[in-house]
Amino acid sequence: MIYIYFSITFAPMQHLTEDLQVRWLKLRIKLKEQFGIKPDMDGILLLIGVQEFGAGPQQFTKEQKQDLMHIAVCTVLSPSGYYILEGHDEESWPHFKQLLPLPDIFMKDQENFLKDHILLYFQQQNFI
To answer: What is the dihedral of CA 120, 34, 24, 71, to 10 degrees?
Structure first.
């Protein structure tokens, strides 16, 4: 009886993970069509950060790229109530306040959690 319970609950979870991976791949392919490269997670976060910073194409330092990726994470997690935009500084960099602690989940689950929020971001931007 336990075997049936686990097989019933496990199958939908596996399906959801597969669906997430398919949607993620489709996003990466569409980004490749748009920009000529198929970015990984860091590249996608950098792209979102540049978009949200709004300064257009320019050269960024390594530290600025890390800041842009942080902006991206805060931005994509904001609709779920984890962060809120507090404002911009004198150089137009956005600043966020953390409202909720991030879930304490395994590394692979963290990646999927972030992928799901990134996909939602691109849906809200009418990109996918």
So the answer is: -50
DSSP track, 57-89: S----HHHHHHHHHHHHHHHHGGGTSEEEEEE-
Write the CB contacts of 73 (distance below 8 Å, at least 6 apart in sequence).
45, 114
Structure-token match 């609709």, residue found: 79
From the list 95, 64, 90, the residue with the least C-alpha distance to 78 is 95
Is residue 13 classed as helix, strand or coil in its secondary structure?
A: helix
Per-residue pLDDT of 62-112, as tens digits, reads: 999 999 999 999 999 999 999 999 999 999 999 999 999 999 999 889 999
Residue ranges making up the domain that contains 57: 2-124
State the total domains in the chain. Answer: 1
